[in-house]
Amino acid sequence: MKIGVIGFQGDVEEHINILKKLGEKYNNIEPVRIRNKEHLSEVSAIIIPGGESTTIYKLILEYGIYDNIIERVRNGTPLMGTCAGLIIASSSTNDPRVVGMGLLDVDIQRNGYGRQGDSFMNEVEIDGIGRFLAVFIRAPVIKSVNQGKVMASYSGKAIMVRDKNVLGLTFHPELTEDTKIHEYFIRMIGGEGGVSTGMHAGSVRVK
Amino acid sequence: MALNIQDLRFGEELLKTGFAKMTKGGVIMDVTNAEQARIAETAGAVAVMALEKVPADIRAQGGVARMADPAKIREIIDAVSIPVMAKVRIGHVTEALTLEALGVDMLDESEVLTPSDPFFHLNKKQLKIPTVCGARNISEAIRRIFEGAAMVRTKGEAGTGNVVEAVRHIRMVNEGITLIKGMGNSDLSRVAETAADTYLRLRKDVMPNLFLKETKMGNDDVYYGMSMQQIQEEILGVIKDIKKLGRLPVVNFAAGGVATPADGALMMKLGVDGVFVGSGIFKSPDPIKMARAVVEAVENYEDYRMIGNVSTGLSSMDGKDINDIPKEQRLAERGI
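Structure tokens for the assembled complex are given below, as produced in the milestone run.
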């Protein structure tokens, strides 16, 4: 089973390394980089990594897979977005430089905690996963969750949200050695533990 | 729930190396004003380096090159949403902390500026924000990582539009990694000893000769309060990481002389994680097109048809033969 990481820019390798580690436990997991439609059609789950959201967004558009990702995820393929990946998957980024895919109905503020000097890490409690060292780097803030379940919060703000097959995090599980979140994500393949939500907001894409 | 400041652990190494990892696979561009910064961001740069003058102009002007005017830095920070880096003179802790206070996301302790400390580089572990440092070979890279660099880049020869020195430095770092990979424990310890001895030599250079004979000096404060033993142990840790990972334990970019999309792609092919472009963008006749083309070429460094397309009709900055630059004017010789 191929798990694909959108492989243009950012900490792609870090996600792949965690998936490789999990591959020792679940023998059918094969991490791959997604750079085109063919790659995308072969994977059972998609990760949009951390990195520079403006850059990753631009490259996803240019390589013509923006709409394909939306289609795959709407048809049930699990998606995890970490930091920049969450921004791109969200319904509202409040920034014309990055137009969200509308796959996770949350309202985002980019760099919501400030600049790199304000980056931080802390242990947080995640529903169904437990304690986890969350690393926030120029992280976005989720201003409101319009649909989906908040799995973890920090300082009164949601930092991890799941809506059915879509998982969004403002922090970077790929930067630690802890594989629990990726393991949880892999278990989402096949629809385990889905959060029912009713109607999904339509995606509005401004070009 | 109120924000619990006590809970937020600032300055951890993971935050610094993690920040650097977010730039992987990207292009970082030198910019001197808000308009250039916006061009870089629109082209898809992962960060910008805020400067008063690009290296080619620093080289042409001569004299002492210092930290940029804070007004310049603020102007650029306000113009873009991508990270903003800034250059600090080698060893200038006050410039470093001033830039940190201005909200700069990452420092470049850069040989392009005139060094401020003739002996030591910054103790980068004391800074809250991450720092990138230049290196010509594996020894320089090891020392900079020991000092706390969260990212390393080749020095190349900045402002020349000539990529030969960047290629030289990538090859020398890569060769060093290959050697270390093949070493046993005793050789690794000897490499660590040699690297640590550099700090002892520099420390000896600082010592006055008060007795006309050799002055006795202790080994307990060699570099920012660290003993020789401590330095050696930490350096050995860095070298063991290199052996284990088969690469530098921090993000490794190319810099210094990248002037065309093909130059950028070549850097990636030689195995670096990303590319800095200094004078190459805004000293070219069509910066908007050049910025876009370099990002595309770095992103698809093995798609030669595409590199041909984006390079079509694209003029680059004028280049300099390295042999025409006197040794004392070569920036890569600074801060070893």
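The radius of gyration of chain A is 15 Å. Chain A touches chain B through 35 residues (CB under 8 Å). Further analysis is deferred to the final report.
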